[in-house]
Amino acid sequence: MRAMPTIVTTLAIAAGLAATMQHAHAQSCQQLWVERNQYYKNHGYCFKTQQAIAYFGNGGCTVNDQDAVPLTAAERARINQIVQQERAMGCSDGGGGAPGMTCNQLWVARNSIYKARGYCFKTQRAIGYFGNGGCVYQNEGDIPFSSAERAQIAQIQAQERAMGCQ
What we know:
By secondary structure, the chain is mainly α. The chain has helices at residues 3-26, 29-42, 50-56, 73-89, 103-116, 124-130, 147-163. The protein starts with a helix and ends with a helix.
């Protein structure tokens, strides 16, 4: 009978690990990217990529070196787990058009770039999701995109076309 508490504890630990792994497998590339980068955002990291800046912003950031972000041991362990899962799923490093992204996630990634540059959305869907507060550009052609942003938008649009997104 003494073995019973050990067996119960072992089963509980195994069930917890299985639930964690199932959660990780259920997450898309975009969800994993967001979770991973949220740890950095929470500790004041100043993002470098346009997608991360568009998604998280750099307001209040204080840490420029990713290796200097004061993560806890548990956060580092979870980030390592996420990175392994991203690799296993063939995810890119959060760039637009990552494998496994849904049409809606691609739409959000693409329009986040527009929002970050001050575009005034026209559709109810985009206005409802992003709002138009602080917008300054009524015409897409007036938005001062960098060449990297233009390439990222083109990549996302190509994937949206390939997937038949509406």
